[in-house]
C-alpha cells in the first residue's frame, strides 16, 4: 500500500478509535456519578468524548507512576473504552437508530463527506515536520521518558524543563503506541481540533430552528469556528506535541460549556461535572489556566447554590473530582522535582532527589522574564517595568490578529454595552448585571496571564474569547428588544466585526491550505550530539550546537552538570540527584 494512503488510513482509524474509546469512558463516568440518570441516553457524543479525554489523561497519569506508557499499557486502556462504548451502543441501539433515521439522507451524506474531508486535511497537515522550538527543547524529550520508563524521580536535575509537569505529554506519549508507531505528535492536537469542530457543529444541529436565537450556543458556535480554522492553518502545535494549542482549545471548550450552563434555568448536572473535569485537566496541562479555571468553578458553584434544585451531593462530588485530578498532578510534580507546582517553590520538600531550591527559583524567574522580554537576563527584566515598552511594541507589530484586534473589538463592544446600560430602564440594568458573568472568566484569566507570564501563545484562547463574550453579552441584552429580523442582522454584523481579521487572513493566505504532507509522516529533526560523563559516572548526551535535543537518545540535556548522579548507579530510571 502506498505510504501516503497508508498514513491517511492509520490517522483516520486512530481518530475513530480515540472517539469511540473516550466516549465509552465518558458514558461510564457519567453513569457512575449520576445514579438517577442511569436510563438517560440522550447525551451529545462530543460531551462524552471530552469527558473520556479528561478521564484518559487522568488514568495515564496514574499508570505512569508505576509503568512506562508503552504499547502494552495503552492498547488495553483504549480497548476497554471501546468495549464500554459497544456495550452502551447495543443497549441503546434503538435510540441511536431513531436519531439516524430522523436525519435526511442527503444531510447524512453531506456531513459524512465534510467530516472525511476535514479529518483528512487535518491528518495531512499534522504530518508535516515539527517546527515548534520548545518541542525540540524538551517536548519530545519528555515524551520519550514517558514512553521508556515509569515516572523518574528528580528528572528536573537532568533538565529543568523536564519537570514542567504538563499532563498533555502523558496523552501525546500514549498515542505513540511505543515502540510500534511513534507518530503520536501528529495525532494529539489534530484530533482535539477535530473534536472541537465536532463539538460546535453538534451543538448547532441539536437545537431546533425556533430555539437557535434564544439559546445563544448556536451563535457561540458560529463565532468560534473561524478561531479554530485560524489555529488549524497557523499553529505549529498541529504537527508538534505542544501543550499550548491543547490549552487554548480547552479554554474555548470550557467557555462553551460554561455558557451552556448559564443558559440553563435549572442546574445542568452534566455541565457541572464536565466543567469540573475540564477545568482541573486544563490546570494540569498549563498552570497559566489557573485563574481562568478557578473563576469558572467559583461562578459555577455560586450560581448552582442560587438555583432551586441545588445539590450538596453534586457540589461535593465535583469538588472531589477536582481534588483527585490536582492531587495526582501534585504528586507527580513532587516526584519529578520536589516541588508540586514547579517552577514555583510552593509546597517544596527537600527530598534526596529534589531539584535545589535555588535552581527552581532561577527557572521561575526565567519563565516570567522570557515571557516579557526574550533573550534578556531575568535580572534586567524582573523588578521593573522597563520590559513593557519593547513588549507592547512586539505585540502591536507581530500580534495583531491574536491580541490587538480582539482587544480592539472587545473595547468597542464594551463601550456600546455601557451606553446601553445608562440608556436602559432599572429592570433592564439588573438583567445587564446578571449577564455580566459571561465576561468575567476570560477577563480574570488575562489579568493573571499579564502579571505572570504574558507571552501571547499562553492565552490566545482567552484573547479570542474576549470579543466573543462581549458580543454574546450584547446579544443577551438586546434579545427581547429587537425584532427577529433585526436581531439576525445584528448577529451577522457582530460576527463580521469579531471575525474580520481572521477571515481576511484566511482569504489572503489561501495557499496555506495547500501546506500539507504528500509523503506521509515527515521526520523529526536530528541534531548532532556528544557523549559526556559526569564525575559520578552518569553517561549524558548533549547537543553539539544549541539547546535542542529533539528526538535524541535519553538521557539528553543541553545543560551538562558534572555533579549529576543516578539514585541507583545501575538503573537510569531510578532518577537523578545532585546532592
* Main β sheet profile: 2 strands, antiparallel
What structural class do helix, strand and pairing data support? mainly alpha
Strand content bin? under 5%
Give the integer mean of the pLDDT values. 88
- What share of the residues lie within helices? 55-70%
Give the C-alpha Rg: 24 Å
Q: Between the first and last Cα atoms, what is the distance in angstroms?
A: 54 Å
Order of helices and strands: HHHHHHHHHHHHHHHHHHHHHEEEE
Low-pLDDT sequence parts? none
User: What strand line-up does the widest sheet have?
Assistant: 1-2
Shape: globular
Report the strand count. Answer: 4
Task: Supply the number of helical segments.
Answer: 21
Report on the structure:
- The chain is mainly alpha-helical and 579 residues long.
- The protein has a domain at 3-152 and 160-278.
- The chain has 21 helices and 4 strands.
- The longest helix has 31 residues, at 3-33.
- It is globular, with a radius of gyration of 24 Å.
- The termini are far apart.
- Residues 11-463 form the DUF8201 domain.
- InterPro entries: DUF8201, LIC_10190-like.
- The chain crosses the membrane at residues 6-33, 45-67, 73-93, 105-124, 186-203, 215-233, 274-303, 315-335, 403-422, 428-451, 458-478, 484-507.
Q: Short summary of the structure?
A:
The chain is mainly alpha-helical and 579 residues long. Helices cover 64% and strands 4% of the residues.
Task: Identify the notable features of this structure and list them briefly.
579 residues; mainly alpha; two-stranded antiparallel sheet; two-stranded antiparallel ribbon; 21 helices; 64% helix; globular
